[in-house]
Amino acid sequence: MAAEIGLPISVYRPGRYPVCIITWQGSCPELPSIMLNSHSDVVTAEEVYWSHPPFSGEIDENGDLFGRGTQDTKSLSIQHLEAIRNLINNKVTLERTIHISIIPDEERGGSEGMKPFLKSQYFKRLNVGFALDEGLTSPTNTMFATYQDKRPWQLNMTFYGQGGHGSSIQTSTAVEKLQLLLDQVIHFRREQSQIMSSSKAYDFGSFNGDSNKCNSQQSECCGRVAVTNGASH
Ligand SMILES: [Zn+2]
To answer: How confident is the prediction along the chain (233 residues), in pLDDT tens digits per residue?
Structure first.
């Protein structure tokens, strides 16, 4: 497809699996480039649950295409290429170079494809200033742009509490403080669950509208954790 549009394609293999980069050069190639990312790998498919063989790419009489990975994320790679094809056909030239990256191991965490590629000189030479990754496939002509819809939030915590002899029951122990935190986490989780279930499908507005509430919960949660009495244990 890249050749059809007249775009050069490079395949890099700094890790075990190949990373594919299709480049549309801009009129100011010295500017930081834009990367549009999608992935070529897919999760497994159990054929028994499929109406059509999952790796056949069959198209039925309605024009629906069946195949594991068509939405996650072959459709995205196609959208990127088609968008560029349209721009080229309409004689549009962008200032910035666009790189379409199709990476091999997103579903497995990227350690044998994207991760070594990011550390390589090949990636540095692309001079990427901004990147967009996979999002939602839309059944209509309305496309949704989302950001940070789900992110990991990892914390390391140490709890300090009052120690003492096993024959007595101490107060203000580390475990009690841990329990306080867990209560907060469960409370926060329930609240998030309510927010999600009260939002209509694709209604990202109301989800974002409650984000301040979420943040205050987070800082309250962290505030409690920060209070330690510095005793042994
Ligand atoms: Zn994906």
So the answer is: 999 999 999 999 999 999 999 999 999 999 999 999 999 999 999 999 999 999 999 999 999 999 999 989 898 899 899 999 999 999 999 999 999 999 999 999 999 999 999 999 999 999 999 998 887 677 777 777 776 666 778 889 999 998 888 898 888 999 999 999 999 999 999 998 898 788 765 555 543 434 344 333 333 333 333 323 333 33
By the 10 Å C-beta count (0-12 exposed, 13-18 middle, 19+ buried), 46 is classed as exposed
Q: Which residues are annotated as a binding site for Zn(2+)?
A: 39, 72, 107, 134
Question: Is 61 an active-site residue?
Answer: no
3-class secondary structure, 8: coil
CA angle, 181 as apex, 162 and 172 as ends, to 5°? Answer: 15
Same domain? For 82 and 180 the reply is no
| Boundaries of domain holding 216 | 174-226
Query: Is 41 one of the catalytic residues?
Result: yes
Q: How far is the CA of 51 from the centre of ligand 1 (A)?
A: 22
Query: Do residues 194 and 120 share a domain?
Result: no
Look up the pTM and report it.
0.67
Indicate whether 23 and 111 sit together in one domain: yes
Residue 42 lies in a domain: yes
- Measured in angstroms, how far is the CA atom of residue 36 from the centroid of ligand 1? 13
Judgement on whether residues 70 and 180 belong to the same structural domain of the protein: no
157 close to 223: Cβ distance less than 8 angstroms: no
How far does residue 106's CA lie from ligand 1's centre (Å)? Answer: 7
